[in-house]
Write a structure and sequence with these properties.
3 helices; single chain; Porin; 8% helix; mainly beta
């Protein structure tokens, strides 16, 4: 049973991170836990290959880059998200943010659930002796200071919980972000340091958090094309347990209502392209993203609803 439990923990750490590669394995692969923190928030960003730290402008900035809370158009922003992720795993999360003068505050939380994982004894068997679930959860607070339209910076704190079979672990995590706007916000530069915190203990093992560093840029093309405008973004991403990634995305917003999105990742182990749609009506944003995965992991369908008021 113990061997099976260790196998289950190892499998969950690798599998839930979607960092499965049989070609070139990073020497630190498998040394971090809480890999659900790597999964992006929101269908809009998912459709743009998660190149989001320089373009997000709603409550999901609590996840992507707290400094970008400065770009909220309305005083309040609420986002609800549901993802039918790989291998029958589901992700549900919610975020809220508000403007208070030169300050922005936000809260958010995420629950990942992976049910019906087979449990077996040490000896191989056709039928498992039982099934169990795995859960990951975080709840967090975010803050941003906006001294000018050019500059903003922010930070997020998260309380994290992970449970696999009979074992559980708790952690604390910090995130810091910067944002610089140029040419009335049409050009943006941004950077974040994500998932910074102490090691997390699972059973008798200590795991590092999946610390990741990102720099990104976005450009909103200043002229219209067929009654719409293009937005392009690119992020350079360096996880401590994997190689560099390049994420690029684009969005065409037609008449301020219908959005067509696509993105591409270079260096990710199981994801390459993504596509999606969005519809903006009054203060409501409805988004969908389709993200295929390699290695027979299946496809990911992500939905999100945003409300501004």
């Amino acid at each position: 049973m113990r061997r099976n439990l260790n196998w289950a923990i190892s499998l969950a750490v690798v599998f839930l991170s979607a960092d499965i590669s049989f070609a070139e394995i990073h020497p630190l692969a498998g040394t971090t836990a809480l890999s659900f923190l790597k999964i992006g928030a929101g269908a809009r960003m998912a459709a743009m290959a998660e190149a989001g730290i320089a373009i997000v402008d709603d409550a999901t900035a609590c996840y992507w880059n707290p400094a970008r809370l400065s770009q909220m158009e309305q005083k309040h922003s609420v986002y609800f998200l549901h993802s039918a992720w790989i291998a029958e795993t589901t992700i549900d999360e919610a975020y809220y943010a508000a403007k208070i003068g030169k300050h922005r505050v936000g809260i958010g939380g995420r629950l990942l659930s992976a049910g019906d994982i087979p449990l077996r004894e040490d000896a191989p068997s056709l039928e498992p002796i039982d099934y169990y679930n795995a859960y990951d959860f975080f709840a967090g607070l975010s803050y941003a200071f906006v001294p000018s339209t050019f500059l903003s910076f922010g930070a997020s704190y998260r309380r994290i919980y992970e449970k696999i079979y009979l074992n559980s672990g708790y952690g604390h995590s910090l995130q810091a972000g910067l944002n610089f706007n140029f040419f009335d916000g049409d050009l943006t530069l941004a950077g974040t340091a994500d998932n910074i915190g102490p090691r997390v203990q699972m059973e008798h093992f200590l795991f590092k958090q999946p610390t990741t560093f990102k720099i990104g840029s976005s450009w909103r093309i200043p002229w219209t094309m067929f009654d719409g405008r293009w937005l392009a973004s690119i992020d350079m991403v360096k996880p401590i347990d994997n190689h560099w990634q390049i994420r690029s995305g684009s969005e065409y917003l037609w008449k301020g209502q219908l959005a067509l999105r696509m993105g591409y990742k270079i260096g990710h182990d199981s994801e390459t392209y993504a596509v999606g749609l969005g519809y903006l009506w009054r203060s409501y944003d409805l988004d969908y993203a389709f993200v295929p995965n390699s290695y027979d992991l299946g496809n990911s369908h992500r939905f999100s609803l945003g409300i501004g008021f």
